[in-house]
Amino acid sequence: MGGYSVVMAVASDTLAFFTRVYDWVDANVINLITTTVIIAIILIVYRVLAIEIDKLRKKQIIDNNTAFLFKRITKWTVYVVYGVLIFNTLGIKIDFFLGLWVLAGGTIIGFASMNTIGNALAGLIIMVSRPFKISDRLYFQEQYVVVEDIDIIYTRMRTLDNVVISVPNQIILETVIANQSVYDVVRRNVVVTMDYSEDPAKIRGILMTAVETVEEIKDESAPYVWITDFPSYAMEYTLFYYISDTQRVQMIDSKVREAIMTGFTANELDMSTPNLIKSVK
Fold it and tell me: In angstroms, what CA-CA distances link 11 with 19, 22, 23?
């Protein structure tokens, strides 16, 4: 009898629960239908807006960065509207929850997410001011990178080593960045030292001949050589040249160094220490 009573009690409670649910649905059927229709309409509008934004991006009326910003703002607006509609339909007063959130969690979350908020604000500034855009070629922290994506917290970049790095937007905002995509070509240079006894005109000629053998060097921007320093051990020469493919900058620099080495060796000029190629910048 005890087991039977328990089963009956559970059955009674379950029936009462479903009865209350049915009564609530019956009393709010109009609100449920209205909310469902509104949500469906908002979803359709969001999809249409997303398609139109993509069309504007493909027609190059807006760039990738602006399209991304519009989509992100639209998506979060839809989420907020959905939340308000659902809470109102369920009869939940959101004023109390909002007040509780601000009072109990606002301070803690504010301290814990100080960096996140800073990165978010920096992300918005980058999206609005647009110092660079997606697919731009940048010189960032002493290396060439290509912008893959600009998010609200992080900006993702691909290095020459084909590694994707995620950089907090606050760091980007505080860092000097050279946007190489603004220019068709970028200048590179190689610093070489040679003994004072060697004729500068001869050294200049060897360097110019060497760089002419590298096919990636831009012909329309002629390379040139300067004497840039007089250190105690040798005369310093700097060869300047221009390239357009910064994705292959390491390979092109290597070809230039190899051509210089070949040129000096062919002319029987000693490049051993301290007469050596010092650096490529």
Answer: 12, 16, 18
Instruction: Provide the whole-model pTM.
Output: 0.51
**CATH 2.30.30.60 placement within the chain:** 132-182
- Block means of pLDDT (10 residues each) for the chain, 281 residues, are 59 69 68 80 86 78 70 80 74 59 53 67 84 86 87 86 88 84 81 89 92 81 90 88 82 91 89 54 50
CA contacts within 13 A on the Cβ side of 99: 4
Q: Could you give phi then psi for residue 88, rounded to 5 degrees?
A: -65, -40
Give me the CATH topology for the region 132-182.
SH3 type barrels. (2.30.30)
pLDDT value at position 232?
A: 81
Q: What is the 3-state secondary structure (H, E, C) of 223-251?
A: CEEEEEECCCCCEEEEEEEEECCHHHHHH
Say yes or no: domain 186-280 is CATH 3.90.550.10: no
Is residue 113 helix, strand or coil? coil
The answer to whether residues 226 and 268 touch, using CB atoms and an 8 Å cutoff, is no
